[in-house]
Amino acid sequence: MRFDYTIKIILLGDHAVGKSSLLVHLAEQYEPKDNSCQCLDFRPNGHVELAMRRNGKRILAKIVDTGGQERFRSITASFYRGTQGCLLLFDAEKPDTFRHVNSWYVDLEMYTSRQPMSTFLLGINTQSHNRQVTPEQVERLATQLEMQYHELLLTKKSNAVEIVFALLDKIVTHASRLPSLTIDILPYQARQHLAEKARRGSQEGVLDAEKFKCAC
């Protein structure tokens, strides 16, 4: 299957905050309405790949989990490489996971400072009677970090797919306004073709310059 865009989204947050559960819900609840939409690959604690059509474009979205590395704070730069979007999770029943959001955001900024990033803040267990993080606290943090905030429902009627769709739409819209970003989300073969075309153009420019060199 050929795609117009390939987009990588990473999941960040403390251990056992719900990242792996989110992957499961994406894989299980992604019910395509036609043959152009499907779950291509799912690896628990690893990633899920979704193929879809959004606004006339064929998109391959890879949503990647940390695979437990966050437990030891051993996530490396390679995990962040080539990322266009991030879902940053906290558990409203566990205040520590909310307090650590800032730390995760600092890491995200450090490793992706050279690439534009679209990030959503996600809260789980926000409907729980044991909720310990207040809506006011979340609103302040989302405003401070300039993030959209969504409450993630990990139930039979999960809204996980809708949230991913919203993030993908934001990434594509952002990229459409900046040609350099559009190149970043093109499939590998298309990027290679553009790079080769640019290289040839550069060589032709050198040859043209040679014609006008001074012979003195």
UniProtKB/TrEMBL annotation:
GO terms for molecular function: GTP binding; GTPase activity. It holds the Pfam family Ras. This is Uncharacterized protein. NCBIfam families: small_GTP. InterPro entries: P-loop_NTPase, Rab_GTPases_membrane_traffic, Small_GTP-bd, Small_GTPase. Belongs to the small GTPase superfamily. Rab family. It comes from the Eukaryota. SMART domains: RAB, RAS.
